[in-house]
Amino acid sequence: MGDKIITNRANYWKESKGPVWALAPMEDVTDTVFREVVMRLSSPGNLHLLFSEFLSTDGFCHPVGKDKVVHRFHVNDSELELAKKHNVKLVAQIWGTDPEKFYKTAQYIANETPFDGIDINMGCPMKNIIKKGACSALINTPELAREIITAVHEASDLPLSVKTRVGFKSVVTESWISNLLQSEADAVIVHGRIQKMMSEGEADWNEIAKAVELRNQINPKIKLLGNGDVMSIEESLDKVMEYGVDGVMVGRGIFHNPWFYNPAYSPSMEERIEALRLHAKLYSDSWKGVKPWAILKRFFKIYTNSFPGAVQLRAQLMETSGFDEVESILNDFMIEQEARRIASENE
């Protein structure tokens, strides 16, 4: 397909010595803005890997489609600076079915972006994607899955991981994970659900433990992370101890607590408001005219909770159409809170 690109970027999978904590790739969530916010709210050393939104290799390699998807590879200078400061690695996740397109996309990542590594999506359960034979549907075509991994490995020397599930319509941990463990991947990230479950039901960490046992037998050099239903760093540590994984990837847990990776910290109302203001400002500066404002609204709830007036504040914010409106609402809310505090002290 061409010459392999040598970047000489460190292979964080081979260098990691303790548990690896990772934030999962999530569509319309883990863009450069949210990744930066999460880093700013995290305690240094408690977060190691941040994954991009997943990008279609078909779209990227299409002469017209590229412009519609390439924003998923955008990294703000402020995010990159923060990642270097905190030694957090940025990982680009890609999906598709054509090994040659994976190769071309991987070469672009190595040549034209600051990402530290590549992850192949073999786990997304969405119906419109699996109809194309991609993501978790690749569990049904293990030979093609291996060809894709090989193509990405041959494209560059960037660290390579695969995020997947324990099965498609039924659990096939032994055959499927064994197949991946014989590939060129540096790491496998295992979500403890099958495609059919989507995000419903409980993740089966016993199947993840089975994947760990297979790894120990087949290829001990490969790192193996677990994923599914983890809501705190403390719980992550418990999973490492109980199931033998090398680390934990968290997805929905970040929506319950944006300070997930700063476990000893309990943010005040003022800090929640300022985090929301930061997120909205970064989003406006980064995506105005590119992404719709409505995408940001899904984040309002993760900041506006656990304090008096949060529900009413959130209702107001949901009616906004830009940062200036958000800032005005937040300023009025803080003035009102201060007035109430002074009135209470004078009673």
TrEMBL record:
<keyword id="KW-0560">Oxidoreductase</keyword>
<keyword id="KW-0820">tRNA-binding</keyword>
<dbReference type="InterPro" id="IPR013785">
    <property type="entry name" value="Aldolase_TIM"/>
</dbReference>
<keyword id="KW-0285">Flavoprotein</keyword>
<dbReference type="InterPro" id="IPR001269">
    <property type="entry name" value="DUS_fam"/>
</dbReference>
<keyword id="KW-0521">NADP</keyword>
<feature type="domain" description="DUS-like FMN-binding">
    <location>
        <begin position="23"/>
        <end position="330"/>
    </location>
</feature>
<comment type="similarity">
    <text>Belongs to the dus family.</text>
</comment>
<dbReference type="InterPro" id="IPR024036">
    <property type="entry name" value="tRNA-dHydroUridine_Synthase_C"/>
</dbReference>
<keyword id="KW-0819">tRNA processing</keyword>
<keyword id="KW-0694">RNA-binding</keyword>
<dbReference type="Pfam" id="PF01207">
    <property type="entry name" value="Dus"/>
</dbReference>
<dbReference type="InterPro" id="IPR035587">
    <property type="entry name" value="DUS-like_FMN-bd"/>
</dbReference>
<keyword id="KW-0288">FMN</keyword>
<comment type="function">
    <text>Catalyzes the synthesis of 5,6-dihydrouridine (D), a modified base found in the D-loop of most tRNAs, via the reduction of the C5-C6 double bond in target uridines.</text>
</comment>
<protein>
    <recommendedName>
        <fullName>tRNA-dihydrouridine synthase</fullName>
        <ecNumber>1.3.1.-</ecNumber>
    </recommendedName>
</protein>
